[in-house]
Design a protein that fits this description.
Layout: H1 6-10, H2 18-32, H3 43-57, H4 60-69, H5 96-102, H6 104-108, E1 129-135, H7 137-142, E2 144-155, E3 171-172, E4 181-186, E5 189-194, E6 203-204, E7 217-228, E8 237-240, E9 256-262, E10 268-271, E11 274-282, H8 283-288, E12 290-295, E13 301-306, E14 315-318, E15 334-341, H9 348-359, H10 366-383
Helix pairs in contact: 2-3, 3-5
């Protein structure tokens, strides 16, 4: 079977630059890598074909010979570009392994084993911390300044975060020469692993600090003053940059995230920026109407007029008496919800008066009268 043109294999023009050729091969290698194409039996052959094409076109001398003589440049000693192998590759310096090695870092070099390739980590950022803070509804309404104690890791004062005795700088790892990784050739592939000596740090501490044991940080409780803005609710998250765990070997500190939980209140129920207050009223007060005094979340009092004939569940709104808006001006509203209370433990005189009242109330209960008319119609319909 005739070999495909190397430029067609990589999908580039004959006048493509070295960077364009490398970029095209990188894309092909990612698309055709056998590990990503387990269900495509042709992928491995195409992968090797792309590597073969790149091995020739990346080299200026080989590329010039190929441009002049085509595939014949590498057959029968013509062009001096290496002898063709029985399996289709080319011998000499340029082979599949070297072609793939050129883009190995591009394909697999972003993150390996939690360490960034291209150098070890002299310092590691500290972990982020979470603190759960419970506040009352009154505190959430007015906001507050609160001091909290956070158990965390802080920079060791003895070694100033270096992890070495006397604050000396760590030494370069002799195994990986500071790269934090070691490479080994396995057939066509170059395998890279985290350095076993320095665990990827690229440096070692010869004389560890006797206080922190070489970590560069120690466990300690820290007292922090936190500003809780008015209007917070359960689930609100407050970030304190750099107040998390100290980094290793002088690395930057992580962040502290405070998660707010607002406690339930005995009088008020919260729904977003609005508050609801369940107020019981006597049957007589609901029937006759009048004024009642209700509490507000700021500790004040408000007088509310109950309309005559109010029923259970009726709501009255007090504008601006709810919770402050966390990200905006003004505040929500407060809703008074009436619960008409039925009297209990009646005296004989009260029973007598209620019976008399009931006898005189035939036309004073429109809702119940309408309901029972519907019931009578329903029963008559069932009989029919």
């Amino acid at each position: 079977m005739a070999k495909r043109d190397f430029y067609d294999v990589l999908g580039v023009s004959k006048g493509a630059s070295a960077d364009e050729i490398k970029k095209a091969y990188r894309q092909k290698a990612k698309e055709l890598h056998p590990d990503r194409n387990a269900d495509n039996p042709k992928a491995e052959a195409q992968f090797k074909e792309a590597a073969e094409a790149y091995d020739v076109l990346k080299d200026a001398e080989k590329k010039a010979a190929y441009d002049r003589f085509g595939h014949a440049a590498f057959e029968g000693g013509m062009g001096g570009g290496g002898q063709r192998r029985p399996g289709g590759g080319y011998g000499g310096q340029g082979d599949f392994a070297s072609a793939f090695s050129d883009v190995f870092d591009d394909l697999f070099g972003d993150i390996m084993g939690g360490q960034r390739r291209g150098g070890g980590q002299r310092a590691t950022r500290g972990a982020d911390l979470r603190y759960n803070l419970r506040v009352s509804l009154e505190e959430a309404h007015r906001g507050l300044q609160k001091t909290i104690t956070v158990p965390t890791a802080v920079q060791c004062d003895t070694c100033h975060g270096t992890g070495a005795e006397g604050g000396a700088e760590p030494a370069t790892c002799p195994t990986c020469s500071g790269m934090g990784k070691v490479r080994a050739q396995q057939g066509f592939f170059t395998v890279e692993r985290i350095c076993p000596t320095c665990s990827g740090a690229g440096q070692i501490v010869k004389n560890p600090c006797n206080v922190c044991g070489g970590a560069g940080r120690v466990e300690k409780d820290r007292a922090l003053s936190v500003n809780i803005p008015a209007g917070v609710e359960t689930g609100t998250r407050i970030r304190l940059g750099g107040e998390g765990e100290a980094g290793l070997r002088g690395g930057p500190s992580g962040d502290l995230y405070i998660f707010i939980e607002v406690e339930a209140h005995p009088l008020f129920t919260r729904e977003g920026e609005n508050l609801f207050c369940h107020v019981p009223v006597s049957m007589a007060s609901a029937a006759l109407g009048g004024d009642i005094e209700v509490p507000t979340i700021d500790g004040g009092r408000s007088r509310v007029k109950i309309p005559a004939g109010s029923q259970s569940g009726k709501q009255m709104r007090l504008r601006g008496k709810g919770m402050p808006r966390l990200r905006g001006a003004g505040a929500g509203d407060m809703y008074i919800e009436l619960a008409v209370e039925t009297p209990v433990n009646l005296t004989s005189r009260q029973r007598e008066l209620l019976r008399e009242f009931d006898d005189l109330s035939e036309h004073n209960n429109p809702e119940s009268s309408g309901f029972f008319r519907k019931v009578k119609t329903f029963w008559d319909g069932m009989k029919g």
